[in-house]
Amino acid sequence: HSLLSALLFLEMMSLEEMGISCELLELDFLKCSVGFPFMRSKSKYEFSVIFDTSHLSGEEEVLSFIVTAQSGNMERSESLHDNTLVLMVPLMHEVDTSITGIMSPTSFVYGESVDAANFIQLDDLECHFQPINITLQVYNTGPSTLPGSSVSISFPNRLSSGGAEIFHVQEMVVGQEKGNCSFQKNPTPCIIPQEQENIFHTIFAFFTKSGRKVLDCEKPGISCLTAHCNFSALAKEESRTIDIYMLLNTEILKKDSSSVIQFMSRAKVKVDPALRVVEIAHGNPEEVTVVFEALHNLEPRGYVVGWIIAISLLVGILIFLLLAVLLWKVSLAIVPTHGCPALLPFQGGRSILLDLPSWHWYSEGH
Ligand SMILES: *[C@@H]1O[C@H](CO)[C@@H](O)[C@H](O)[C@H]1NC(C)=O
Ligand SMILES: *[C@@H]1O[C@H](CO)[C@@H](O)[C@H](O)[C@H]1NC(C)=O
Ligand SMILES: *[C@@H]1O[C@H](CO)[C@@H](O)[C@H](O)[C@H]1NC(C)=O
């Protein structure tokens, strides 16, 4: 009842006709007279009172109304117990949250011949890293204040199951320090996968370096890195940002055979139901997908070119020789001459003689 000051009492039009009149005695005290001048024995009045809740601050957990009936007559003390009623209305915060996100850069080129100055190196680590920034923004359309929420973000972290981790999250910062994030730190940010020493493998990889690989955390079998952030209260029509600074180990990409690798990261905002928050159904989307692409420059390494030329030359010469021999043989006419006995081995120690035509090279002079 202490909240009545924030509630606006709206009197019902029909109350007067029923002999009911209400007046606000104090800001939180409403008094209604029922059945003036008297109430007949065993009679019942039904009436409703409407309150406007649009002025509530959203701080309250429940609205409680204490309703007390009091008679002008003397009432027996043993029948007083049912004269008081406590009505409780739990309050929910109804919000419509949305999330948006941008990446910087949205694509980059990697490969052996790409200038190392495009990448950064961490102290005493050999790897070339591509810095990537993601900025996410959570917005509360209202109508209520959002008392608490959390955001989860997942990045595809391996090119294949069992592969090395690609990302190294350096920092996650929530705007105005109104939230905290937790993520798993990559203990070994610089892993250079073992070089395939076999030159044929390298050449094969060069020729098969085609096609697009899509890494999407929604797909089964994709290993993802997930980070979580908790936000403190977000007022209506306010927004909060999360800045994520991370590094991508390009050494791992160089060993992959795709020419384009697309990373699809997903972020989702969730309201905390324990804080009596409900998300408006069919409101703005609570999920966002941010995409960036790693493009291979498709230039083979120097020695690979050498090997490709050498092997091509060798294969060319072999084919030429084969054709030459074949043509030389075909150009000779083949004719059978006289019979020539052939001795065939026969099981049981015996032999049989067969008279087979033999082949004779026909040429001038014979
Ligand atoms: C990422 O953000 C930092 C700090 O704002 C900035 O210095 C850096 O240039 C950004 N990097 C990219 C790739 O946008
Ligand atoms: C974040 O952490 C700090 C210190 O650990 C704490 O004071 C603050 O309440 C936390 N904020 C949220 C939104 O969890
Ligand atoms: C966020 O809140 C959940 C539940 O209250 C808690 O388990 C988790 O540790 C919090 N995370 C951070 C980064 O504060």
Give structural notes.
The chain has 366 residues and is mainly β. The protein has three domains: 8-91, no CATH class; 95-300, ntegrin, alpha v. Chain A, domain 4 (Immunoglobulin-like, Sandwich), CATH 2.60.40; 336-366. The chain contains three helices and 21 strands. The protein has helices at residues 199-208, 250-254, 302-330; strands at residues 8-10, 21-26, 29-33, 50-52, 62-68, 84-90, 93-95, 97-104, 107-110, 129-140, 149-156, 167-174, 179-182, 212-216, 224-231, 239-249, 260-271, 277-279, 287-296, 334-345, 351-361. The strands form seven sheets. Strands 9, 11, 13, 14, 15, 17 and 19 form a seven-stranded mixed beta sheet that branches. A hairpin with a 5-residue loop joins strand 20 (334-345) and strand 21. The longest helix is centred in the C-terminal third of the chain and has 29 residues, at 302-330. The protein is rod-shaped. It starts with 7 loop residues before the first strand and ends in a 5-residue tail after the last strand. 17% of the residues are buried. The mean pLDDT is 80. Residues 179-180, 230-232 line the site of one 2-acetamido-2-deoxy-beta-D-glucopyranose (NAG). InterPro entries: Integrin_alpha_Ig-like_2, Integrin_alpha_Ig-like_3, Integrin_dom_sf. Residues 1-19 form the signal peptide. The chain crosses the membrane at residues 304-328. Residues 13-90 form the Integrin alpha second immunoglobulin-like domain. Residues 98-293 form the Integrin alpha third immunoglobulin-like domain.
